[in-house]
Specification:
This protein is α/β, with parallel strands linked by helices and 240 residues long. It contains 8 helices and 10 strands. The chain folds into 2 domains: 165 residues, Alpha/beta knot (3-Layer(aba) Sandwich); 59 residues, Trp Operon Repressor, Chain A (Orthogonal Bundle), CATH 1.10.1270.20. The radius of gyration is 21 Å and the shape is elongated. The structure holds S-adenosylmethionine (SAM). The site of S-adenosylmethionine has 20 residues, from strand 6.
Length: 240
């Protein structure tokens, strides 16, 4: 088991990850705002090596699929022992248990908000052909997908979920403002952003943004957000 950071922020939001590759963590979660928040103890990360719960001298974690077919499947007994062990860690008993899986419910901003509002997450990163169905049911795992494509393992998906939730925790982002106008808030994509220089390769910043008239700026941004959403993601508006 590995803890990041070493100091125990007992009440901090926590991510507990079960994986065959704990060395992948914190990885990208250790840099920039999310990494600074980790170092500051605003959230906590623990990894558990599933192989520690493997069977026999070779610590086997997988076996061939019942019914035949290619690949290997993570064993239910091994995964259950890893989950039960992780649950015994202080503060981990009530974490929602999520199996990252391409057939899960799609990760969304709303789900990230829901998870950020709770005590944290316990995440199972699958490998091979996936995980024996019985442990998904037996340990009441919620399945979450990060998109309609297949990754080689659940670790990157776990990192995506953690990043999306942690940046919503109080104190992680500098300006609260930068959250309220983001894409997916209110069922809209974000309006276009510009910065200096005023002219670049003959392209200028829209005049309204330089007008100093905040009412007009807000109206322009709202109209642009609606236009982009209509053009690119009409499904978002219908869902909100
Ligand atoms: C090669 S995939 C297994 C794919 C599985 N045979 C299927 O067709 O659904 C190995 C692991 O990667 C993770 N994974 C792959 N794609 C994912 C996605 N889109 N979202 C979340 N996790 C994913 C899961 O943990 C999965 O157990």
């Amino acid at each position: 088991m590995a803890h990041f950071p070493e100091n125990d922020g007992r009440t901090a939001w926590r991510a507990s990850v079960l994986t065959l590759f704990p060395e992948m963590f914190p990885g990208p979660l250790g840099v920039s705002l999310v990494g600074q928040a980790l170092a500051a103890g605003l959230w906590r990360l623990t990894t558990h090596q599933i192989r520690d719960f493997g069977i026999g001298r070779h610590r086997a974690v997988d076996d061939t699929p019942a019914g035949g077919g290619a690949g290997m499947v993570l064993r239910a007994d091994v995964v259950a022992n890893a989950v039960d062990h992780a649950r015994r860690e202080p503060g981990a008993a009530d974490l929602p248990l999520i199996y990252l899986s391409p057939r899960g419910e799609p990760l969304s901003q709303a789900l990230s908000r829901e998870l950020a509002a709770g005590p944290g997450v316990m995440l199972l990163a699958g490998r091979f052909e996936g995980v024996d169905e019985r442990v998904i049911e037996g340990r009441s795992m919620r399945e979450v997908s990060i998109g309609d494509y297949v990754l080689s393992g659940g670790e990157l998906a776990a990192m995506v979920l953690i990043d999306a939730a942690v940046r919503l925790l109080p104190g992680v982002l500098g300006a609260e403002e930068s959250l309220t106008h983001e894409s997916f808030e209110g069922g809209l994509l974000e309006y276009p952003q510009y910065t200096r220089p005023r002219e670049w390769e003959g392209l200028t910043i829209p005049d309204v943004l330089l007008s100093g008239d905040h009412k007009r700026i807000d109206a322009w941004r709202r109209a642009e957000a609606e236009r982009l959403t209509r053009e690119r993601r009409p499904d978002l508006k219908r869902r909100s």
